[in-house]
Amino acid sequence: MRGKFISIEGLDGSGKSTQVRLLASWLRHMGRQVVVTDEPTEGPVGRIIKLALKGTFRLPVAAEALLFAADRLQHVEEVIAPAVASGKIVISDRYTASSLAYQSARGLPLRWVMMINEMAPKPDLTILIDVPPEVSAQRINRSRRLDEFERDLELQKKVRQAYLDIVKACKMKVIDGNRSIDEVQEDIRRLVKKLL
Ligand code: ADP
Ligand code: TYD
What we know:
Radius of gyration: 16 Å
Mean pLDDT: 94
Shape: globular
Structural class: alpha/beta
Helix content: 55-70%
Low-confidence stretches: 143-147
Number of helices: 8
Bound molecules: adenosine-5'-diphosphate, thymidine-5'-diphosphate
Distance between the termini: 12 Å
Strand order of the largest sheet: 2-3-1-4-5
Number of strands: 5
């Protein structure tokens, strides 16, 4: 029996990894086999992306978008597709919607980002944990110079708006993430229950 593929989306600090962990443990308690994974991956392409994100070298925004898409295809082939084919529930912390939101917020045409991601299979369920950027920034409590932080906050605002703009196109379910961890988890479980 085919499994299910769920992706969880949102800003850094929106609570994705916290919610993924709780969802996985709930599903395992119900006796389901669960694979938790994330993007960018630890694979060869993902490692290049992470170096660029750390500032080790700079990549043109479009080249970065192509790397995210390439990393995703390898992720699908090596991790996601085999697990789903063997009946497991795969939960990915970030997937295609991250590229659509972040790379379009960084100035790339949304249609082009969609096109380079066409080969990536659609998840059975994508959940967007929506939080105001001020809240997610506070949660991750990054220490930066104010001007840099402000610039970052501007980008986060654009990313949040880009996510909200693609809700329909990506058939995402939006959850208000500006609540307690338990309340958010309850909504996520309700959505996942419908899928099982
Ligand atoms: P992400 O994976 O989206 O970056 P995390 O799950 O790592 O986010 O959460 C970032 C920080 O915020 C962590 O310290 C986490 O404990 C905390 N956090 C997560 N969800 C909530 C919430 N609903 N309310 C308050 N703090 C939260
Ligand atoms: P992530 O691993 O979630 O961040 P962290 O390791 O800090 O928790 O993702 C790294 C960054 O990459 C994050 O800011 C979002 C960005 N990103 C994109 O811009 N496009 C993508 O397609 C993906 C998957 C991530």
